Amino acid sequence: MDGDLRKKVSDLNLKAVLFDMDGVIFNSMPFHAKAWVEAFASVGIEFDEYNAYLREGMTGYATIHEMFIAQKGRMATEAECKKIYAYKCKVFDSFGPAEPIEGIRNVLKTVKDAGLEIFIVTGSGQQSLFDKLEHYFPGVFSEDRMVTAHDVKKGKPDPEPYLMALAKGGLLFDEAIVVENAPQGVTAGVSAGILTVAVNTGILKPEDLLEKGADVLYNDMFEFNEALSDFIELGVKKM
Ligand code: CA
Predict the structure, then answer these.
(1) Distance from Cα 238 to the centre of ligand 1, integer Å
(2) pLDDT for res 128
(3) How far is the CA of 140 from the centre of ligand 1 (A)?
(4) Antiparallel, parallel or unpaired: β 117-121 and 216-218
């Protein structure tokens, strides 16, 4: 851990870790990306998987309008939005459930063993979200420590979801860290004033995450898990 980060972590009074879900807990981004590429191809819009990763966390309709403006010189109609988004969802669903991200179990165990609280902060609004988490990670998550699409007015990159997690946990800015994989999520964590760890679990360039202000970047969950011992040693204050 470099000196700058050591100083930031030493200044924490670490009590909780706020995890994003897609691309951090579950490896769902490859499916989302492939589904977007197919859906856009069906209306003659060029869109590659890297584009999908850059836009992770944007609403479906915002993504569709952006690409229409860029390539067709106009916004999509409501009917086009509905059709393209339905197509994307159909392809996505055809892949079946996403598996956990490699190494995330080790990370969750390290965090739990250190006595830190674990929060989920996601833009997803799936009804069965908690059941899915419980299925893959029994006893790790709690419904009281989740912020989903149903809780917030403004999603990421707005800081609201992360601020709401702090509020739910009765936590101060320096009592948590954020774990994110996407540019919009990093922006949300940073603008909430929380130390933000980026883990590049997909195909983004490191600068895509660092330019948004991530305090540190790890290439995978194994690297983050190794660094976590420093986070805990320096950040958790003994009473
Ligand atoms: Ca994510």
Answers:
(1) 32
(2) 83
(3) 19
(4) unpaired
